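Hi team,

Filling in the usual template for the complex we talked about on Friday. All components are listed, including any nucleic acid strands or ligand strings, so the model treats them as one assembly.

SUBMITTER: L.P.
PURPOSE: interface mapping
COMPONENTS: two
RESIDUES: 334
SEQUENCES:
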Amino acid sequence: MSINVNPAQAYEPIFYVVDEHEHPEGASTMLGFWIYLMSDCLIFAILFASFGVLGGNYAAGPAPKDLFDLPLVAINTSMLLLSSITYGFAMLSMQKSRVGATQAWLAITGLFGLAFIGIELSEFAHMIHEGATPQRSAFLSSFFTLVGTHGLHVTFGLVWLVTLMAQVWRHGLIEANQRRLMCLSMFWHFLDVVWIGVFTFVYLMGMLR
Amino acid sequence: MTAHSHSAHHAADHATAHGDITLSGYLTGFGLSVILTAIPFWLVMTNALGDKSLTAVVILGFAAVQIVVHMIYFLHMNTRSEGGWSMLALIFTLILLVITMTGSLWIMRHLNTNMMPTHEMSRMQ
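RESULT (copied from the run log):
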């Protein structure tokens, strides 16, 4: 008793689709960008974890209480929060296809971002001037790595913001530019979410140590 | 047929993504964020609770709530966007984040506690 199976008659599994099906332009951009943000989130997770482990190792050097200026951190936090809401206003203007208002709100967002970076850099300069350099202790190494990585993200966000303003100025609020602005919106708000972790975990809890 | 339903699906996705952006949504998120930021700063600067570890737990709670507020009102996260895939990616990331954070802190704390102090080691030699 033998079974003869003709391969042509049997069910043939489909391993790949021969005909390319339609992918509307930008249909997967938002999800792809979200997954990028999640991977970025993991970078910050390991930096937070290393700060959590090393944050108490002062090596007889300065501690958070000697270095941090909470009113300044509060001002910095409000700069980033204000830039978040102004970016939101830019998105609302974009929805109404108002190019001028969109550009104006983007410019205001950029100024708040610049203020944030400026205050952070002056804080870093002040710390380094006092001898609290990244190589002073494990606490300061992990502090500068974590806060510096966030600051670098904001800086690149600003570069991206200026680039998109040039794009909008050149081509208007075409669909591609709307998509790009929505990606930057996610990036910008994501950086604000990370900053919540920074001011709570690094600055406020540092003062409690 | 399939192409049509695909693009229709995309159009629906796009509509919901845009539909979530409202002025009231942004203002609500901003107002809540200001409150949720101001209270932790006030707690630490005035030491209102008197106990450091209690203050730490409370400000971590405020941070967690504020992150959720930002996710909903600024990042427009919901279970429907991108057919639920962005929420799935977020949950996966949160699981990895919790494992990384608690794992690192827990293990390194135990290592520190169980490590023999250096002055005792020098005495043994």
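MY TAKE: The helical segments of chain B are 2-19, 23-46, 52-73, 85-114, 118-124. Chain B touches chain A through 51 residues (CB under 8 Å).

Thanks, L.
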